[in-house]
Amino acid sequence: MKINLCLLYGGKSAEHEVSLQTAKAVIQALDTSKFSIHPIFITKEGAWRKGPELLEPVETVRELEYEQTGQEVGPNALATILSPKDNRTFDVVFPLLHGPNGEDGTVQGMLELLNIPYVGNGVLSSSAGMDKVIMKNLFAQEGLDQVNYTWFTRSTWEASPDRAYEQVEREIHYPCFVKPANLGSSVGISKCENREELSAAFSEAFRYDRRIIIEEGVSAREIEVGLLGNDFPECSVAGEIAPKSEFYDYQAKYSDGNTDLIIPADIPAEQYTEIRNMATRAFRALDCAGLVRADFFITNEGRTLINEVNTMPGFTPVSMFPLLWKHTGLDYPALIERLVHLALERHDEKQKITHTFF
Fold first, then answer.
1. Are residues 87 and 111 in the same domain?
2. Which residue in 55, 111, 312, 331 could disulfide with 118, CB within 3.0 to 4.6 Å?
3. Burial status of residue 306 (CB atoms within 10 A of its CB: 0-12, 13-18, 19 or more)
4. Is the same domain home to 31 and 109?
């Protein structure tokens, strides 16, 4: 029997277009003999529109934008939307959503309330992994080595901008990176070498979030690994990001191809073991499930520092996470299928929990 798979994509997020590219890639890779594919497009305004069952791959992302043609549904209707073929609700939902309102635990919370299996991380790990401040605080609690950082709310900055800049210069120093606390895909990130750049970076980052984080800039290689699993995650080979621009920004990731992805990374076996162990500790510290990409720095002095984890990493065939698993022996279609089965496994495990006292 086919698995009724619902794909959620688009979203009210600065990463809306990235999500559309991900949805197109997943649809093109899915085996229609194993899956019935049911798309739900979330507009930039937050409206939910269900498209018809997809019986063949789409060629462009425009085919997935059901602004005018889709059936308008509310999120609370997910539990009662039925498959046109066999009157069964969705077996699994795959949230192909990047950024706020999708990757941050909001959609995951809704799916938990509806008791529908879904691919990827749960409410806690999604929200903690999305919020760079909380994530780094948890890493510190776990004892994972990382760069120095500090953070501010918009109201604190607006009350005394110069005091905020002085704190950064005193505690973090230049160069530093300024980032929105809750956003991915390198949106709103700036590298700063002086006070003028720092001021502009604060203004830019606060366009995307009410909280920002400032991190120490280090001279280092950027190494990434993928984790796949639930309670006992497997780790992929390591890959290296070698951006030709100043840093691995949005254009380097998605537009200009101005980045080399080196897989496997040329690192000693003992350093890979250290990275794998740190990645697994980070995965468990956030109670992750399904998939995670863990990002590290190897400094010029040889220190291994965890940078962040991404609970819904870039997921097109040319994104780092699928490429890491391809080089580990799991191709893109098999990776998607594995994630769906991990979602069902996680959901079944949750059903063992008792919710009554008597």
1. yes
2. 111
3. buried
4. yes
